[in-house]
Amino acid sequence: MRNIKLPEISEIPHDVFPKKVLQRQWLVDGKLKTWEGQVQEVYSPVQCKSEKKPFYLGSYPCLSGKESMEALGAASKAFDHGRGEWPLMSVEERTGFMSRFVIEMAAKRDEVVKILMWEIGKSLEDSKKEFDRTLEYIQDTIDTYKNLDRDNSRLKIEKGIIAQIRRAPLGIVLCMGPYNYPLNETFATLIPAMIMGNTVIFKPPKVGVLLFEPLLRLFRNIFPPGVVNTIYGEGQEVVTPLVKSGKLNSLAFIGSSKIADIIKLQHPKPHRMRSILGLEAKNVAIVMDDADLDASIPEIITGTLSYNGQRCTALKMIYVHKSIREEFLNRFSEAVDNLKVGMPWEDGVKITPLPEPGKTDYLTGLVQDARKHGAELVNDEHGAQVMNQIFTPAVLFPVNEKMKVYHEEQFGPVIPVAEFSSIEEPLQYIIDSKYGQQVSLFGTDSDKIVHLIGPLVNQLCRVNINSQCQRGPDTFPFTGRKDSAEGTLSVFDALRSFSIRSIVAAKDTEENKTVIRDIIRNNKSNFLSTDYIL
Predict the structure, then answer these.
(1) End-to-end CA separation in angstroms for the chain
(2) In whole angstroms, how far apart are CA 8 and each of 13, 48, 349, 515?
(3) Residue 4, pLDDT above cutoff 90
(4) pTM above 0.70, yes or no
(5) Distance from C-alpha of 412 to C-alpha of 316, rounded to nearest angstrom
C-alpha cells in the first residue's frame, strides 16, 4: 500500500496558499455586471487532513438564459453585420490591442497559476507551463496574423480581373474550453477568433472557472465593448438559447462528441454555424519486439500519466509484442509505482488529486470490470488506491474487448495493456475504433515502421515515432478523424478556421484602375489595400 499523506492547513506553504475568489461579476458589452442570483460554490480537489470537506475556493455566477441572450445582443451589436468597429479595424489596430493584452496578462501570472493549480489539481510546474504556453500562443498568433496579412497584401490580376483576396471574420463565435487545459485550450480558440475580427462569447468549463476572474478586467479595459463577453452556468440554461437563436456563426468547443452533437443540432440552420471541435481520443501505443525499452518506457509513462492521463492526447491503450510483454510489464509497472503521488505544489509530484466529482468511483469501476473479465492489476500492491480525490495509477493486463476500458476513453490514471503477435491486431483495433486522433510507434527497425506509416496516416492525423502523442508544437496542425475532431487547430489553421476568404474584384479597365488606385493610395479601405505591417 502507498502511504498517501494529506497535508494539514498549517503545512501548506504560504506562497502557494490561494485567496478565495467570490466572483459575482460577468463581462458583457464592456461592463462588469454584478450578479445577485444563485452562485456555484467551487471546492478544490485538494483536501486537508483534519478537514471533512475539500478546500473551499470560492464561487461564480449561475446565470440564466436572460443573461446569455444579453451577451449575444452585445456581441451582435459589436459585430453589427460586419459594420462594427472591431471587424472593420485594420490588422495593425487589432494586433495592437492583442499585444497590449499579452503584456497585461503576463502580470497576472502568479495569481492565475495559483488558482489553476488549486482548482483543477494540476501540479504547480505544469500550471506555470500552461500559463507560459498560452502567452506564447497569443504572441505566435499575432506574428502569424501579420505574416498572413503580408502575404495577402498584393493585388492579383488573372484573366482580365483585378482582385484583392483577404480573410474576413465569420461573425459571432461561441468558445467553450475543457477543464484539463482551461486556460490554454480556451484561448487557443478565443484568441484567433478575436484577432480575425469576430466578436466572441466564451463559457469557461464547469471545472476551471475561477482562474478567468483575474483576466475579466483586462478584457474590459483593453478591448472595445462587446468584443468579449462571458457567460457562466449550466449549458442547458445558457448555451441552448444562444444556439437556438440561430445567430451564432461559429462554435468552438472542446469536450465530448455527445455534447457537441447536442449543441450543433439545436441550431435552426446547422450548416450556417461553422464548428471547430476538439473531441475524445483513445490513442494507442504500439510497442514492437525491437523497441528500445530504456527509451520507450519513460516516454510511455509521460504519455499515459502526464496530468494523471487527463489529456485527449494521452496514450490510453498499449499494445505490446508478445515476445517482450513480460519484461515490459515488469519494468513499466515498477516505473509507474515509483511516480510521486501528492499535492500539486510538491516538488517532483506526478500524480495529483482529480478535479472531477465522482471520477475515482468511475475509475474504480473500470478496474473492477476489467478484473471481472480476466485482467490482472499488474501493480496490485500500489495501484487503484483511492484517498479522497487521489487515484493511484492502475496497470491492467491482459485487456480484451469484453472490458469497458478497452473501448471507453478513461481520461485518468488507468492504463490498459494488451499483447499482440501480429501487427494486424493493433491495426484492427485502430480501424475499429470510433476515434482517430494519434498513435505512437515504438521500435528501431525502419522497415517495420515504414510499413505502418502508410496505413496509419490514412486512419489517424498524427503518427509519432518513439515519442508520446501530443498537441505541440502549436505551429503543427492539431486535429482528428472520426469522432475525435472537426476542423484543424494550429496557430495558422486557427486563423483560417475563424475566417473566410473574401474578394474585391473588378474588370481590368482604365476606369476601374483609377478607382482602385484612389482607394489604395489614399488608404480609404482596410480590406482593399496593399499596405502591411513590417
Answers:
(1) 62
(2) 11, 5, 18, 75
(3) no
(4) yes
(5) 9
CA–CA separation, 211 and 174 (whole Å)? 19
Type and span of the H or E element at 515: helix 510-521
The C-alpha atoms of residue 70 and residue 34 are separated, in whole angstroms, by 14
DSSP 460: -
Cβ neighbourhood burial of 37 (10 Å; 0-12, 13-18, 19+):
exposed
Torsion of CA 352, 356, 362, 367, to 10 degrees: -20
- State mean pLDDT over 473-484: 96
φ/ψ bin of 418: left (φ > 0), alpha (ψ from -120 to 50), beta (otherwise): beta
User: What angle (nearest 5°) sits at the alpha carbon of residue 166, between those of residues 162 and 167?
Assistant: 150
Q: Strands of 161-169's sheet, edge to edge?
A: 156-158, 161-169, 499-507
Burial label for 220, CB within 10 Å (0-12, 13-18, 19+), is middle
User: The cell 489596430 sits on which residue?
Assistant: 93
Residue 161 pairs with which residues in a beta bridge?
Answer: 158, 507
Which of 428, 447, 473 delimits the end of a domain? 473
Number of domains in the chain: 2
Examine the domain organization and report whether 352 and 251 are in the same domain: no
- Smallest Cα–Cα separation from 306: which of 412, 396, 379, 206? 412
Which cell is 42 given?
467551487
Amino acid identity of residue 213, one-letter, is E
Q: Assess whether 250 and 303 both reside in one domain.
A: no
The H-or-E segment that residue 372 falls in is: helix 359-372
What DSSP designation does 239 have?
A: T
Beta bridge partners of 387: 390
Cβ 325 vs Cβ 363: under 8 Å = no
Same domain, 416 and 456: yes
Q: Per residue in 75-133, pLDDT tens?
A: 999 999 999 999 999 999 999 999 999 999 999 999 999 999 999 999 999 999 999 99
Instruction: Report the DSSP pairing between strands 485-486 and 386-387.
Output: unpaired
Last residue of a domain, one of 224, 256, 278: 278
At 262-310, the pLDDT tens digits run 999 999 999 999 999 999 999 999 999 999 999 999 999 999 999 999 9
